[in-house]
Amino acid sequence: MVEELPSVFLVGPMGAGKTTIGKLLAKQLGRTFVDSDWYIESQTGADIAWIFAKEGEAGFRERETRAIDELTQKDQIVLATGGGAVMCAENRAFLHQRGIVVYLNAPVDVQMARTAKDKSRPLLQQPNPRKILQDLYSTRDPLYRQVAHIIMPTGHTYPRHMVNQLLQQLESFTDSTAIAPEDKEN
């Protein structure tokens, strides 16, 4: 099954567990794990917060689109994207057409618990991070759903258990033909 499975791309809000689940999934599948934010940092020699501070969100998003284009062309990887990657229609097309997209759907309370004290998240360095997370979720949730082939709720079980559930769902994908979002199972 693993050899026939296309690359797997994880999308979802910050704090959904994309990196944690991605690493575990890659290990189970015997694949390379890539985090798009880490990739951008390694290509630029600067961290995401610095890029946001110097180039603004628009500058970061341009870099992100180039990275998503490059990474989604790699075979048999597990990719964790940044939470805002789906804001760009070009990114959504790259993701949806080049692999299996898994939306890790984390409620705002889960996001808050996991990100509240994380100073490396530029968008949350505001007086009311809960409102920021709620607003981002409201805007981005429809886009995550649009691009996703599989939707998995997070924050209710252990990461290893989630990976086992995800592996079961991935078994139905035995060729590189993507399933349209309206045909997916939750």
Describe the structure.
Catalyzes the specific phosphorylation of the 3-hydroxyl group of shikimic acid using ATP as a cosubstrate. It is found in: Cytoplasm. It holds the Pfam family SKI. The protein is α/β, with parallel strands linked by helices and 186 residues long. The chain has a single domain (8-170), classed as Rossmann fold, CATH 3.40.50.300. It is built from seven helices and five strands; from the N terminus they run βαβααβαβααβα. It has helices at 18-29, 36-44, 48-72, 89-98, 108-115, 129-147, 159-170, and strands spanning 8-11, 32-35, 77-80, 100-105, 150-153. Helix 1 (18-29) crosses helix 7 (159-170). The two termini are 21 Å apart. Residues 175-186 have low confidence and may be disordered.
Which structural class is indicated by helix and strand composition? alpha/beta
Strand content: 5-15%
Summed up, the domain count is 1
Low-confidence stretches: 175-186
CATH superfamily: P-loop containing nucleotide triphosphate hydrolases
Distance between the termini: 21 Å
Count of alpha and pi helical runs: 7
EC number: 2.7.1.71
Pfam family, one: SKI
InterPro entries: P-loop_NTPase, Shikimate/glucono_kinase, Shikimate_kinase/TSH1, Shikimate_kinase_CS
Pathway: Metabolic intermediate biosynthesis; chorismate biosynthesis; chorismate from D-erythrose 4-phosphate and phosphoenolpyruvate: step 5/7
